[in-house]
Write a structure and sequence with these properties.
about 170 residues; mainly alpha; 6 helices; elongated
Length: about 170
Amino acid sequence: MVINGIATGIGGILLILAFVGCVVPVVPGPILAAAALYVLSLAGGWTVYTWPVLIGWTVAAVVVQILDNVLPAHAAGRAGAGRGGVWGSVIGMLVGTVLFPPFGVFLGAFAGALAGEILFHRDNREPLRAALAVFRGTIGAIILKLAVTGATTFVFVRGAIRLFGA
């Protein structure tokens, strides 16, 4: 019973970090949420979740993490943005997260994309359009990560209830 409590605590910490990772670019949020399922399942002797459930949530986490990298770049490419806009968005999110939490991540993504376009893609005649596209892709990726992490949290809570026999 003690190991169950420790595993639930560790899983809870992983889930908190996972939600932070949904908006902070360098932390793989959905993957941490999937790891919480494995911690809980390990404590329950691998009987809390079936292997297809664990593999399914792991695949979902990895796919969303890949989309997190692809969506902003894809949106940027469709709008004619360059790499400067994409990297500016990532750097802006990091700086915005530190300087203006919690909304700095959104404002920083947009401001960074716009600055990156203006500074590094001077031939682009519509830097605002490109920056908005990068911003939309970034926000779309954040929403996807939050959705998968939230659903994984629901599965974790159900598993913890089952583990404790309630």
